[in-house]
Design brief:
single chain; 543 residues; alpha+beta; five-stranded antiparallel sheet; 19 helices; elongated; diguanylate cyclase; EC 2.7.7.65; Nucleotide_cyclase; Rev_trsase/Diguanyl_cyclase
Length: 543
């Protein structure tokens, strides 16, 4: 793929992807490009957005933003959590996946933004929802029968519920005057006269200050020996609960409209709520939380939640991690937040879980990591990635005592191919060369494009003789593989076993000299590096 093709492919992927994307110049933070999703999210016209710098959007101090851009450009850190300010002034919590991408010879930061504000708001709303359903006061009363009904006794909670300044003030009020609806009063009295008891009857009442309250009243009709009748009962002020039910219905509607999976279990480990997204993906979960975990998650996630997630959430109140749920087609990666709530007695009374599908974000992250570590033309790893892998394999080799070998090779007279057939044919040759080599390599072997038509092979657990044999097979395979319209294609190889304490630079020199000897001795051959490094530069035209 040429650089123009690469730029065109990136532009198509950038503009058509539904994710929020920005292209940023790492030198000054200028927003070079923004896709349609970014324009909708930030609320700026496209031309205005492209005149801003990322520091105009990111709520961090500019110096901190520059430090993070440097980390992303160097691939030291690809994931960030920021607050971004929209054109409306609204501040949103976002996850940002950012990494370098090279376009038309310039390096930019390709940033994918995911809005996670609602996820945090859901958690806060769940906390409010739980608070509203605890510690409601209960009033106890006694009153005489009509027609001159009066309260004869009331506890302090009754005074608070009905906003009475004193017990005398409450006792002076006729109970029937507190009813908001005459029909509710008549129905309540008729049922009480008929059945002798009414349990948790919803009634709308007025306080002594005229405020409307929603209550649930339980009353008992009692007949004394002298035939007199009075009533005793319990009044529960459910005004807050009534409001909470409205909020809960709204919250339930919101959670059912959310693409995130939301579930709640009570303090006894029973699943009491699962929103629509969860029901659509997971079906009906078992009532017991332990069984629900097994039904919803793969085994490794169940172990992680049981051994780390729930203990951490019980200790700190929350736990956050990347896990997975079981979808119809296998595991789906999710970001998972577990929040616990304790009652006044200190015991856990609810466990809430919010899970967001991050498969697309993971795919974007994998794409960024792949592009950061691979040659865009051939798909071989690039030089920087090769050096990182070499450091890892050297540590492993020192621990295990296994040998580690390197092969350096390039194509003979590659400049003639470009001059004779053009660079597009040269690109085709390089791509096909990599495919040819991969057919002979193990999964643990690392093939890197070292530069131009020069390649490097990292061979873990391979002694010098094994590396020489592989180099010979590669040489023969390349010579026998057709590369039309190129009539003949050959390659030259230098092979060395890397000493346990040998500096990489010294080994590269030995390899380069061995490759030079292969060129000088007629090309299309394999030469083993001499045991001790030799200095001296190599003329480019020898290749």
């Amino acid at each position: 793929m040429t650089s123009d093709d690469h730029a065109s492919f990136f532009e198509q992927l950038f503009n058509t992807n539904p994710a929020i994307k920005l292209l940023i110049d790492p030198r000054d933070g200028r927003i070079v490009d923004a896709n349609a999703s970014a324009v909708r999210f930030y609320g700026y016209p496209a031309d205005v957005l492209k005149q801003l710098r990322i520091t105009d959007i990111n709520c961090l101090e500019p110096a901190e933003v520059l430090v993070n851009m440097a980390k992303a450009e160097a691939c030291q850190q690809l994931f960030f959590e920021f607050k971004h300010r929209l054109a409306s002034g609204d501040v949103r919590d976002v996850h940002v996946y950012s990494g370098p991408v090279c376009l038309e010879g310039r390096e930019y930061l390709h940033s994918i933004i995911i809005d996670v504000t609602d996820e945090k708001r859901y958690n806060a709303q769940l906390e409010t929802y739980n608070d509203l359903f605890h510690n409601l006061p209960v009033g106890v009363y006694r009153n005489t029968a009509e027609p001159e009904s009066r309260f004869t006794a009331a506890n302090p909670a009754m005074l608070r519920i009905f906003e009475a300044e004193s017990l005398e003030a409450l006792l002076s009020v006729r109970p029937s005057s507190m009813y908001e609806s005459v029909d509710e009063l008549k129905s309540f009295i008729a049922d009480l006269e008929r059945d002798g008891v009414v349990s948790r009857r919803p009634l709308r009442l007025r306080t002594l200050k005229g405020a409307l309250i929603y209550t649930e009243v339980t009353a008992l009709r009692q007949v004394a020996e002298d035939g007199s009748i009075d009533f005793s009962g319990i009044v529960e002020d459910v005004t807050a609960r009534h409001a909470a039910e409205i909020k809960r219905d709204r919250l339930t509607h919101l959670m059912d409209a959310s693409p995130d999976i939301v579930s709640i279990a009570d303090g006894q480990g029973r699943v009491v709520y699962l929103n629509k997204a969860g029901r659509d993906l997971l079906g009906t979960l078992p009532d017991k939380l332990a069984d629900a975990l097994v039904s919803a998650h793969p085994p490794w996630v169940c172990r992680l939640i049981e051994e780390e997630g729930i203990p951490c959430a019980m200790e700190r109140g929350y736990w956050y991690a990347e896990t997975a749920v079981l979808g119809r087609d296998g595991e789906i990666p999710v970001s998972q937040l577990i929040v616990t709530r304790r009652g006044e007695n200190g015991e856990i009374d609810s466990v809430a879980t919010i899970m967001r599908d991050i498969s697309q974000a993971k795919q974007h992250q994998a794409e960024l990591e792949y592009h950061a570590g691979h040659d865009p033309l051939t798909g071989a790893v690039n030089r920087n990635r090769f050096l990182d892998l070499l450091v890892r394999e050297r540590k492993r080799a020192r621990r295990s005592g296994e040998p580690l070998s390197l092969i350096m090779f390039d194509l003979d007279h590659f400049k003639r191919i470009n001059d004779t057939f053009g660079h597009s044919v040269g690109d085709m040759v390089l791509k096909k060369l990599v495919l040819t080599c991969r057919g002979l390599l193990r999964e643990v072997d690392v093939l890197a494009r070292w530069g131009g038509e020069e390649f490097m092979l990292l061979l873990p657990a391979t002694p010098l003789l094994g590396a020489v044999n592989l180099a010979e097979r590669l040489r023969q395979a390349i010579a026998e593989e057709p590369f039309p319209p190129v009539p003949i294609l050959t390659s030259s190889f230098g092979v060395a076993e890397l000493g346990p304490e040998e500096a990489e630079a010294q080994c590269y020199k030995r390899l380069d000299k061995a490759l030079y000897r292969a060129k000088a001795n007629g090309r299309n051959r394999v030469c083993v590096a001499e045991p001790e490094a030799l200095s001296g530069s190599l003329p480019d035209e020898s290749r």
